[in-house]
Amino acid sequence: MAKRIYILCPVTIATPEDKAMLQAHVDMMEDEGHVVHYPARDTDQNSDGFNRCLENGAAMDEADEIHLFYRQGSEGSKFDLGFCFAVSFFYRHNEQKFKVMDLGDASGEWRNLIQKWENLR
Question: pTM of the entire structure?
Fold first, then answer.
């Protein structure tokens, strides 16, 4: 069954290696028949931050699954992670699947929060 997947990941600080890994994951999910929202490709990166947040928020809300590729320095990912957390727990009652695909350089409380969230599933 096709799923709607949101890729929560860095965009502006993504390294060439990150971009290659992300594109490979997007390709694999789409080859399996899933509908993927990949912000680097599917969110208007030329719009202002407010509109990017609205666009990403709508895509996250519509997603069946969130696939996280975390990088400590990505401010946008931290914003998206907070939005996703709120939607998942307070609006969608924890029905949305949250999958950590790559924790990257997450440390301290961010690592703990992400791991606890993933283990609730």
Answer: 0.87
Phi, psi (degrees; rounded to nearest 5) at 11: -115, -65
Q: What tokens does 88 get?
A: 């998942």
We report the CATH number of the domain holding residue 8 as: 3.40.50
Q: Which two tokens stand for residue 5?
A: 């997947």
Burial of 8 (0-12, 13-18, 19+ CB in 10 A): buried
CB atoms within 10 A of CB 9: 27
pLDDT per residue as tens digits for the range 32-52:
999 999 999 999 999 999 999
Domain span at residue 70 reads 4-119
Half-sphere exposure of 25 (CA within 13 A, CB side): 22
Cβ atoms of residues 86 and 75 within 8 Å: no
Evaluate if residue 22 carries a pLDDT over 90: yes
Q: How many CB atoms lie within 10 A of CB 19?
A: 14
Count structural domains, the chain: 1
